[in-house]
Amino acid sequence: MNDTNLTTTTEAAEAAEAAERLIAEFRSLSPDNDRKREIITELDANAHALPFLVSVVADPGEYDLARVESATVLRLWPPADPALRHEAGRALLSALRDPEEDLVRQYAAMSLAPYTADPVVAAVLDTTARADEDPLVQSGARFAIEEAHRLQETGAGGP
Asked: Which of 56, 60, 93, 153 has the fewest CB atoms within 10 Å distance of its CB?
């Protein structure tokens, strides 16, 4: 093993440990503790945290600002793994349907662009952009559709 592989392995182990530590802290906090939002921000770009972030977005009982931050991270860093990517898209759709959380719905709509290869996501996003009762959710869906087109044109949209 050369030095580059050793460094990469060490960095990956450190990232996994950091994710585990932050996730444990998150789970130990009271439901509405704002530190939860901060933890999600600290997990930004940590691939080891993506399954956890998907679960946060999908949980209607979770702190709303933690769900918003998780949706944002999933938009910026969509999972490379096709199964997890599919699960993330469906979690965002679930958040989009949450009648109690307008802000979560807005961010879920904006975050769906990387997931439009899934026909269900694309169809729901299109319907949301045209017919959602919340104009801010509609705008978020239109933004996601435009972003999805840009991602496809540049080839940055992933699988």
From this structure: 153
> What 8-state DSSP symbol labels residue 62?
S
Place of tokens 């444990």: 24
Structure token pair of residue 116: 């439009």
CB crowding 14-34: b at 16 or more within 10 Å, else e: ebeeebeebbeebeeeeeeee
User: In the prediction, which pLDDT does 157 show?
Assistant: 58
Q: Residue 104 pLDDT more than 50?
A: yes
**48: which residues sit within 8 A by CB, 6+ positions away?**
15, 16, 18, 19, 20
The model scores a pTM over 0.85: yes
- Is 134 in contact with 99 (CB distance < 8 Å)? no
Q: Is the pLDDT of residue 158 over 80?
A: no
- Collapsed DSSP state (helix, strand, coil) of residue 115: helix
Amino acid at 129: A
Contact 111/73 with Cβ under 8 angstroms? no
Q: How far apart are CA 44 and CA 69, in angstroms?
A: 9
Residue 2 has pLDDT above 70, yes or no: no
Note the helical H segments in the chain.
3-28, 35-42, 50-58, 64-76, 82-96, 102-110, 119-131, 135-154
